[in-house]
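Hey team,

Filing this mostly as a record. A colleague (T.K.) asked me to run one chain through the structure pipeline before their review meeting, and I want the input and output archived in the tracker in case anyone asks later how it was produced. No errors, nothing strange. Just documentation.

Input sequence:
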Amino acid sequence: MKKLVLAAAVALALPFAAVAQGSGTAPAKPAAKPAAKTAEKPPAKKRQVTRKAAKAVEEVTPIADDANVTLTDADLAVAKRVHTGKIQCELGADVTVTADDKKPGFFTVSTKGARYRMHPVESRTGAIRLEDPKAGAMWLQIANKSMLMNQKQGLRLADECQAPEQLAASEELKKNPPKSLFEGSDAPKK
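Output structure:
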């Protein structure tokens, strides 16, 4: 019985102890009215950066070197096959691919205010693939076209890009299309 009375007394005393700890020893005062809003300082206006200014800044901002990437001999062989220069794409877009003179095998790929520092990555299909793992961007080059994608943003930044060599390969494919998979020696003979 003594334990039950003691437990009840403790249970009743707990809310009073919490109130005493929260307010200290001074008696509770009524809440003060909030200060007038005129005393507050208005937030500073944010400056709008024009698209032209942002592009100018982006063009002069250096791209960080990724010292952790070590290219293999196979990667360097792929790098020799990358088309460089200003490459025209569909819808009037273009992509500029520039080889890094200081670090063989690395490239700067830029388009419409976006710049990426890329390096070759071996591909199972034989396509030439440059990647910027930090930005999530990829330049994919096949015989007749190239494309620039940003996988982190889920965007295709440029498509149907063709260097002069790729344009020639595309014309050749139009003149001499490859055989259909269904044509060939497996067809029944009569």
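Quick notes for T.K.: The first strand starts at residue 85 and ends at 88. The radius of gyration is 33 Å.
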